[in-house]
Amino acid sequence: MNTLPILKLRRGKEESLDRYHPWVFSGALVQMPGEGSGIEEGDLVQVVSSNGRVIGTGHFQIGSIAVRMLSFDETEAIDAAFYRRRLREAFALRETLGLRRDDNTAFRLVHGEGDFLPGLVVDVYGPTAVLQAHSPGMHFAREIIARELVEIPGLGVDSVYYKSETTLPYKAHLDPQNAYIVGDFRGDEAVENGLRFRIDWLRGQKTGFFVDQRDNRTLLRRYSAGRRVLNMFCYTGGFSVYSLAGGARSVDSVDSSAKAISLTDANVALNFGAGAGGRHRSFAEDAFKFLDNMGDGAYDLIVLDPPAFAKHRSALRNALRGYQRINARAFEKIAPGGVLFTFSCSQAVSKEQFRLAVFSAAAQSGRRVRILHQLTQPADHPVNIYHPEGEYLKGLVLYVE
Fold first, then answer.
1. If 42 and its partner were Cys, which of 119, 136, 277, 401 is the partner (CB 3.0–4.6 Å)?
2. Are residues 139 and 263 in the same domain?
3. Which of the following is catalytic: 219, 345, 393, 398?
């Protein structure tokens, strides 16, 4: 017998949910629960159609996305057993992908809607899992999730760090504290495709490392031999380390953050010794200024992997201008026969919009440009086929004559 609060949809608003889209928008509800309704942020609720048909169960929150659906089976309880099943299914997929190996201990275990756990991200770095909640409901379920993570056979995780101070809605007044839920510090080194990285999940961005670029870093490695490489917005230096491993003649890493530069230098040293025998230099400088001031033809491989220029649709126009501007500079400066890896991680920017911005930049430069590869996120960041919004990472590899 159902004891969960019920939220009713307006007539016709069940269509997307009948196609298993996992979001219920506030405007689709007959009435948004308010003060005194007995429904609090993070509560489990049952969603029903306008005629009372049960659609499923999800986490309620205040905002444009009012419910994140966890199950479309009205008989399925959202309890520890539910999280156990979903987490083990997620790990089974990663095992199918062959991601848990001696030479690869860094990967994403849970990718929100892509793993049917909307609002939850879990990245694994060796024996440590970093858990990040993007919804109040997952915040309240964090201890259950952490306990289940360390019990997954074969995963090898015995420590769970909770890092959600910057990802939860600030209006929810949850006051999350970044801290270990299970275990404690087990070392900060992980291995990706045989290359070693120090991961700063305590103070770094996101969960400490951008595992979503693993496949694209592997591709870059193939293009790096003998080239002069510029890695813009380098953060922890992932692309720089792969370029050096691929035999780059030289690699320059640029980031506006001195802290990021120190992480890059540490990761280069971890794999190749300090400065990689004179092949690596780093610069704590603004990316746009660096591109403006560098000489023409100084690099024949450039990586542009900026932070999200548009975190919300309201910033879309300025973001597209930013992508066009920075790509135009790269097209103007790169050496003839150069290769440009350029990315957008802004979910608000579509593949078509990003490609148009890069096209406009190419036309502005007057260079002849060909597309070699069209890139996206790796398989451990799966896209739920019913939730196309989950495809957020866009990339192009371009040959510039």
1. 136
2. no
3. 345
